[in-house]
Amino acid sequence: MALKTKTSTRIGVTILGWGIALWLFFPIFWMILTSFKSEVQAISTPPKLFFMPTLSSYAEVFERANYWHFALNTVIVSVGATAIAIALAVPAAYSMAFMPSKRTRGTLLWVLSTRMLPPVGVLVPIYILARNTHLLDTCTGLAIVDMLTNLPIIVWMLYTFFREVPAPILEAGRMDGATRWQEMTMVLLPLALPGIASTALLSLILCWNEAFWSLNLTSSHAAPLTAFIASFSSPEGLFFGKLSAASTLAVAPILVFGWISQKQLVRGLTFGAVK
Amino acid sequence: MQAVLEHSPPAGATVQTAKRTGFLLLSPSVLILLVWSIVPLVMTLWYSLQNYNLVDPTLHGFAGIDNYWYLLTDPDFLHALLNTLVLVAGVLVISIGGGTLLAVLYDQEFFGRGIARIMVISPFFIMPTVSALLWKNLMLHPIYGVYSAMMRAVGLTPIDWLARFPLMTVMMIVAWEWLPFAVLILLTAVQSLDGEQREAARMDAAGPIARFRYIILPHLGRAISVVVMIETIYLLTIFAEISVTTAGGPGVASTNLAYLIYSRALLQFDVGGASAGGVVAIVIANIVAIFLVRAVARNLEA
After folding, report:
1. Chain A contact for B219, CB < 8 A?
2. Average pLDDT over residues B148-154
3. How many CB pairs under 8 A join A and B?
4. Fewer CB within 10 Å, N or C, chain B?
5. Domain A66-231 has what CATH class?
């Protein structure tokens, strides 16, 4: 279809496409750029586009805060929450997709509606419960809460993926004497692996960026990267170099991860419904 | 839901066992979600009826509906409620409207499209605290921000956006995070549009606007409902962006319900009042959820 498009239109589309892309990406580009400036260069007016790069901001960030401690917490919480949620959601989604009953539809909608519970509405009791069970400021506590907030969406997504697997394939396995467990692990899981992978990806990204519970349920021991970056905000917000270096460090892993996995992610985000 | 019913359960005596197995497999998730949604809710309800302030232990006992009365007659509450709705509606309009146009744009072939697409969706991967700090300082700072420098370069006086237009600015920052998400979903939907269908419309000499209106837009219904559902869940409880940029101010100009309850609970230690706010937030979320889940369910299962 592009073959017949007029040259002038194509040039227009190219300019518009790149213009908007550069504009939307600019803050991220500027953050990375500023992270390699000295503090003086970072606040020079007019802002500098060309300068001698330095790693001094990074050096100071690493000196001031233990980045690896925060990063490790984030990885533990995100991976842990995602793994447990997937493990709980697979049997549930399997049951709803292949052994539906009259109540399946209602159950699904109810599961999804629990995600509508605003975190702030239950902040006080969750905080008190976490404190009384000594889960406050622990990776376990935060992972449990993240897992619970993501479970509804994960169940729903896996359900839509599983439904795309033709039931006769599973039934054929059963004819050959496979148990339910074998049917689920040896027939269904390999077939639905792309869907499970993209569901896990989305969950990882949401956990990585989760701010509300991270800021309210942790203080030092289990503080993840969202808290790390919050500590670089005011009153030191004016140290643009350090702020940018810390921000870049906090988002770099998930940004690169997102770039690599974006195709896979799209499948998950669309619930397999808008392919 | 038709598709579900097509998977007919195995015949005869195995029906009962299948039912039991299905129930057993489903129960862990359902039970855990049941506990998760009911226990905190009951506790919130209980606290909301108590006088309970962490810094004033002399004040305790049953409060009845005092906390609710105090909250609902508080002008801050109405303001916060309105701000919440403005934020949700504003960001939804920007991300759905902009997302649809951008999806069509990035569906066109042009030089370096792959890279441009990755750049457009990148903001979705940035954590809210970082994007808020980024915009507040590097972009919009009245003296050192890039946008201020640009305004000075063309002879305008820089504006302290977060002080002058706090709610609008927060909305723009949030929209910057969620527009890419809408593009991601809607682009997939546009791409899945059957090529032949579009070619046919072309043969019929349909103009680009007619093509968009009658071919592309109707096709996007499902994708749009997915975007609306997921975004609304998150937009109702915007927190980090407000906390980092304006702390709800000036006054309550950029305070939404989530931030109001947070400031009551953790900054003023008023557990009773915060819980009453929490109950109200839950009620509002459920009203939205009823409409949303129904609309989306219809769209997804159709």
Report:
1. no
2. 85
3. 321
4. C
5. mainly alpha
